[in-house]
Amino acid sequence: MRGGENMEDKTNTKLDPQAALHEERKNIDARIQAVNALKTQDQFKTAGREIALAYTHLQEAKMWLGQALGMIGSELPAQFADKAE
Fold it and tell me: pLDDT tens digit string along 12-35?
């Protein structure tokens, strides 16, 4: 981003909180998939541990945003609810 660009155009500040968190979770999910694809490429084999850590922390970031959604009152869709017996 260049110095003179409007930062608001690149953020979710204009969205309602739930929509903003959902959007960020989608963005993180895209990054999770991209990092996962790196694991199979030969040039990244020597950085396997670091890539695995990045993958894990992206998953955690998505999880924490999900927790934030719950805290502001967003309901978990029924198809994603745990069905432990």
Answer: 556 788 999 999 999 999 999 999
Asked if 67 contacts 44 with a C-beta cutoff of 8 angstroms, the reply is: no
SS3 breakdown of the chain: % helix, strand, coil, rounded to 5? 70, 0, 30
| Contact call for residues 74 and 21 (beta carbons, < 8 A) | yes
Amino acid 38 reads L
Reduced to 3 states (helix: H, G, I; strand: E, B; else coil), residue 65 is helix
Cβ atoms of 62 and 32 closer than 8 Å: yes
